[in-house]
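thoughts on both lines:
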Amino acid sequence: MSTCVLVIDDSPAIREQVVRTLSEVSLFDSYKEAKDGLEGFKTLIDSKADLVICDVDMPRMDGFKFLQLVESRPELQGVPIIMLTGMMDFNSKIKGLEQGASDYLTKPFDAGELVARVKVQLKIKSLQDELKKANELLKRLTNIDHLTNLFNRRYLAEILDGEFFRARRNNEYLSLIIVDIDYFKKVNDTYGHQNGDIVLAAVASLAQRQLRAYDSAARYGGEEFVLVIPGTSLAGGVMVAERLRESVLEFVFPPPMEDLTVTVSAGVATYPSPNIDSIDSLFRQADEALYRAKQTGRNRVETMAIPG
């Protein structure tokens, strides 16, 4: 992956010196330049750099203001910034470090010191990137049901908290679908638990295919799944549930289950509704609808009770 450094200084000679020094040791694949903080910020927004070397004292926008702008943009967090200064003012250095600078280098600078400080910051950034990836993987492992690759029940609670708050604040629809595989115990008893796991994974995959990028699916427990569909009315939720029901009914499983027909039942509830004023009541209405679907023959979708 190519690496890039952005050099910000109002002096063309300083910019040329920095670029030449770093080019001689091949630390970066590309070099970008800007003559003040404003131009540098625009450049950084357009094409993110791996490291920034920025002068403190510049016309139009100085280095401190540049640091403030970078700090205000979450997508720029973690980009190391080495400040160049001709001032031996410790208060200015402290100010810059407090505002997000990674290091300072005093002009006129020694080429060897510049290279050494850049290498240190690149190493720190590399370690931070690796830690971020590890944390993201850990979070995923913590939130995912490993058999179905859907969210787990614990993370479902977090999703519902956020989506219900958003729906209530914006007065928007939020649909909840609870799906249960019909007669799943018979599948396990007939084909064994390993093949039962294949059925669970297949239904989970079919459920995931029905969703948009901002919808969520979770394994609630056993053979039960929950779909969270923001910004969708009751009719829209029923359409999602029906598509899933039909796709499961038509799915052909691998041997030895090629003759197996699997069906699902589903209950759909939607906020806002006179019967729903909380996550608990939303879940209860969907669960009661699922119960009616099972009581009235299975392989069907039922909706929450609507007050007459």
